[in-house]
Amino acid sequence: MKIHLLSLTTLLLIFQLAYAQQSSKSDQLDAMIEKGIEDWKIPGLAAVVVQDGEIVFKKTYGVKNLNTKAPVDEHTLFTMASTTKAIVSMALGILVDQGKLKWTDKVRQHLPHFKLSDAFITEEARVQDLLTHNLGIQQADLLWVLDSTSTKKTIERFAYSPKTYPVRGGFDYNNIMYAIAGEVIEAVSGQHWTDFVRENIFEPIGMKDAVAKSGDIFKKGNYTTPYLNDIEDGMVTIDYNLSDQIGAAGMIWASLSDMGNYLKYLVNDAAVGQDTILSKSTFDYLFKPHSFVTDESFYPTQQLTKPHWKTYGLGWFQHDYRGEKLDFHTGSIGGLVAICGIIRDKDLAVYVFANLDHAELRHAIMYKAMDLFAFNDDSRDWHKEIFDLYAGFREKQVEDLKKSKAERVSGTSTTLPLQAYEGTYEHSMLGQVHIRSSNNGFDMDFNNFFKLSAYHWHYNAFKSTKANPFHAVMDFNFQIGTSGKVASLEIFGETFVKTK
Question: Among the three residues 362, 397, 432, which one is the final residue of a domain in this structure?
């Protein structure tokens, strides 16, 4: 009897010690997040950590809207943004397990109309190539920024995006390829990718709040507001980005409650209770390195983590961290951010949402959680290091703004009267922009969707006001042809030719 009582007492002490250690880690992470939110001026944030299949940290902070002061709760919807890519990759994995496709199937086998600017890459492209950002075709995000056309039309226009390196011979992050992956899901399953994901991933995992079409958030009611901390104007509201034509690249919205269940699913190798959504071999395949990531394409945080290698799986960035393999992905859409990270060999996963543009505290939370729960280490002040790193980028923005103002040449005028610049300008891939003169500038309308107001800067150069969805200043310039008439418009690094 004494031995039995002693064993129970010892066991109780072990449990109490483990609970105290876990509680201490949560308190340490919470303290860093509180400090980080204050320094970054983040309106609202939500974070969850899962270890060994159990939630060990879960908390919401701040408000979803600065005007109403409505608090963030565990069911408040935030955008998953590009962390959506992992879910789309898993959806394709389900079809692989069902024997309906192979990772190495040619894309044209399932989408006969699929076409890229390079004939060889068009024929050679495999399903998994859509997920690895290394097919050799230049990214074309302006397609969905400047137009709200259909997915089919967006993909058709993408055929004009140029080849930039040999097939699988580089790395260029490419959202449109994931939109094409969404079309493959529909072609193979007979369901729109949003319906397929809802039935085969959201429902079995228990992601009850999640929506795969961003426009559906307004029906839900409990969603956050996107914000930007502008270097001149302070905290401003940003328009919602509802670009569902490239939805498979990053338009899923979900809650902290959803993410708790999602992380459990990840650390349990795609198992939910006794059911398995993906076979172990297919799930493992998602996390294998499939392409090398260049320094230019990786996150600035690498200056602090100093990885020895950087790769990309199927919907996951990867690098070494403290001798372990870390799979992670950020998500960024105007005014909203997310990050998801998992060290599979430690059965540890982290997810963070925030409603402030480029709130890089998300990186600090992920690495701090990894240090605390995987390595029992609280020695590194991740918030300070990352805040200082990104403060340097913000300081550069301030300096660039000052430099731009100093370089403005006063007293100049356009080569021709403003009315001569009016008309229609066309780009083979990006569509049309209609320009009309206004007081000291222009009103610009891209594809009857994206609108800018602009004012004269100097010579034939103009700047937009911040009255646009991104609250950003955009520079552009007109070129005069040999005929003495306006020939083209240069904006966003692209040239639109005047046709009317």
Answer: 397
Q: Is the pTM of this model over 0.85?
A: yes
pLDDT tens-digit series, residues 296-317 = 888 899 999 999 999 999 999 9
Closest among 437, 436, 432, 440 to 456, alpha carbons compared: 440
Number of folded domains that form the chain: 2
Q: Let me know whether 263 and 353 are in one domain.
A: yes
Tens of pLDDT, residue by residue over 18-34, are: 555 678 999 999 999 99
Name residues whose C-beta falls within 8 Å of residue 335's C-beta, 6 or more positions apart in sequence.
Answer: 225, 226, 227, 228, 237, 238, 355, 356, 357
Specify whether the CB–CB gap between 240 and 332 falls below 8 A.
Answer: no
| 430 and 372, same domain (yes or no) | no
The residues, any chain, with a CB within 8 Å of residue 494's CB and separated by 6 or more, are 142, 427, 430
Rounded to an integer, what distance in angstroms lies between the CA atom of residue 293 and that of residue 163? Answer: 18
Instruction: Tell me the H-state helices in 203-276.
Output: 203-205, 217-220, 256-267
The range of the structural domain enclosing residue 257 comes to: 19-397
